Amino acid sequence: MKAKVSLTIREFFALYPSDEACLTHLFEARFGQGHTCAKCDRAANWYRIKAERAYSCQWCGNHLHPTVGTPFEDSRTSLQLWFYAMYLFTTSRHGVPAKELERQLGVTYKTAWRMGHQIRKHIANVDGEWPLEGVVEIDETYVGGHRKGNMYKGGAHKAVLMGMLERGGQVMTKVVPDNHKTTLEPIIAENVKPGTTINTDEHRSYKNLPALGYGHETVDHGAKEYARGSVHVNSLENFWKHLKGSINGTHMHVSKKHLAKYAKEFEFRFNRRADPSSMLTSLLSSFPRPST
Ligand SMILES: [Zn+2]
């Protein structure tokens, strides 16, 4: 079977040749013909209103705006440029810095920066397949700050990033305030299925996992033991290495405030690595449904 790859640029522009095609996509992905009108409460046909980015109810003339509640809502940047920016996020291995968006889209740096953050925020809301099960590697890492070392001291400049990776499956990241047991345990309980075998290093915050109903195997990183047979957290270490390498290589400095979104961006790509062409589809169909 042919390996699945990302959409080519040609395929992208065939799918979304114009702003109108993008708006039609949003309407169909979020509402569609027959969508019940929020005002008159009847299943309706919706007619395109050419003067604005809106559709009108056949019965009462109520307007429906497919961009409301999406990152495009208050933006004057064309929908096709937004879709293309999202496409770039799905084809990059190392993330898309604002400079790159500025250059490729021909928008100002300020607009490019804002678009990048809006897209990451959107990516962070796309759900993965939880709970994790089977064999799950759990580890924390420290990102940011200006000094190397002091790993286990954390420190004011460094943010703690926790990761849980199902071997052969999905990864989930979370920025956490510290690496204490009371912080990590509830997150594990919420996202990892009971009965799962968890692999960690010797960090004492994980000591209580068997009492929570998990199998628990550890490697002793302090004693330079990195794997014992199939017991290791190397898949997660590789994910950290890629994430940090990309942040250092392209974004220069990622503040604590934005780290969660960057991590989610890498998580999103990692979790769809078997079918990259599905990335754009899931980005463009994961908008919240507005309540009105
Ligand atoms: Zn109506």
Secondary structure layout:
Elements: H1 9-15, H2 19-30, E1 46-49, E2 54-57, E3 63-64, H3 79-91, H4 98-105, H5 109-124, E4 135-143, E5 159-166, E6 171-176, H6 181-191, E7 197-201, E8 215-219, H7 234-251, H8 256-271, H9 277-283
Parallel strand pairs: 4-7, 7-8
Antiparallel strand pairs: 1-2, 2-3, 4-5, 5-6
Helix pairs in contact: 2-3, 4-5, 5-8
Word description of this protein:
This protein is of the alpha/beta class and 292 residues long. The chain is 37% helix and 15% strand. It contains nine helices and eight strands. Strands 6-5-4-7-8 form a five-stranded mixed β-sheet, sandwiched between helices. It has a three-stranded antiparallel β-sheet with strand order 1-2-3, with no helix packed on it. Strand 5 and strand 6 form a beta hairpin. Helix 2 crosses helix 3, helix 4 packs across helix 5 and helix 5 crosses helix 8. The longest helix has 18 residues. The protein starts with 8 loop residues before the first helix and ends in a 9-residue tail after the last helix. About 3% of the residues have low confidence. The site of zinc ion (ZN) has 9 residues, from loops.
